[in-house]
Amino acid sequence: MLQSYMVKTIELSLFFERSWVNPKDNVVIYGRAKLWPDNVWVEGADVHIFVSGQYVATVQTQSGENAGMYRYVYQAPETLGSYPVRVTISSGGIDRDNTSTFYVKTLTITVDMDPATHQVRPGVRVKIYGYVKRWPEGTPASYATVRLRMGPLDNYDNINWPVGDNIARADGYYEINFTVR
What we know:
By secondary structure, the chain is mainly β. Helix content is 0%, strand content 57%. It is elongated. It starts with 8 loop residues before the first strand and ends with a strand.
């Protein structure tokens, strides 16, 4: 007697809107669950979310137009580093999990000025320059956009006069030139 068996599985995707974030930024964790070989979205199933081995939340896969999708917003830790995320699902007796990693990083920027006196008058050409680095690696933040804004010394909340933008080179160096008016 010949018997046939159909093996079913769930495909559980896991994504982040951004693979690295600043400390305390929101990390959007999302994905979709699909039952194979039936080729149908898994609706109304619990997805358990763990960050660095610690349970953080349970969300449900959606129905209707966004069938099978799940989404959760997690606040990144303050500490720089890598954070593995694991999602698990169980539906119709089928268990599945997936793992990926997001990174908490930050940028530092050095600022120097030519003329070196840091005192200028109208009509003087000024060069602001320095390096942008990504931490915790300490590597150049290649092609980062650097925006220079100025404002009144007595109101730091209003420093928004655009002066110039530039893109850091591959080695992280940037330079913005302007003439004081």
